[in-house]
Specification:
This protein is α/β, with parallel strands linked by helices and 138 residues long. The protein is built from 2 helices and 8 strands, in the order βαββββαβββ. InterPro entries: Glyas_Bleomycin-R_OHBP_Dase, Glyas_Fos-R_dOase_dom, VOC_core.
Length: 138
């Protein structure tokens, strides 16, 4: 749950894509990410931010061959877990949009209802109701 006094997200999974504009469209259409910012020209995306409706998001950009990018993540090599309140509807949406199912919708031993799919670039996505353990107060 996001509250008005919650700090903004400070951890962002970030990855590269061979066709970043197509991947952005897929992540919006199939999973429900919101396109927050996209910088670049033509087919090249220098930086994009996609927000998740429940909070947080991901960053991505086009893979480049200039060797000076300093971010050597191979396209299709990222995996993300994303919390959702309605995994059944999201699973149906993702499958309808063409996501490759890796693990069908199921209830887990740790109380989550979740599934796993692959996007067109090869990245792995797991969506579920498990929100993680509460933070410890020190």
């Amino acid at each position: 749950m996001t509250t008005s006094d919650a700090p903004p997200p400070t951890v962002w999974p970030a990855f590269r894509a061979r066709d970043a504009r197509a991947l952005i469209r897929f992540l919006v259409d199939a999973f429900g990410f919101e396109e927050t910012a996209v910088y670049g020209e033509g087919d090249a995306v220098a930086h994009a931010e996609l927000s998740w409706p429940l909070g947080g998001g991901v960053m991505l950009g086009s893979v480049r061959d200039d060797g000076a990018q300093g971010w050597h993540v191979q396209p299709g090599s990222t995996g993300c877990y994303v919390v959702t309140d309605d995994p059944d509807a999201l699973f149906a949406r993702a499958v309808a949009a063409g996501a490759e199912v890796l693990r069908p919708l199921e209830d887990t031993d740790h109380g989550s209802r979740e599934f796993a799919v692959r996007d067109p670039e090869g990245n792995l996505w797991s969506f579920g109701t498990y929100r993680g353990e509460p933070r410890r107060v020190s």
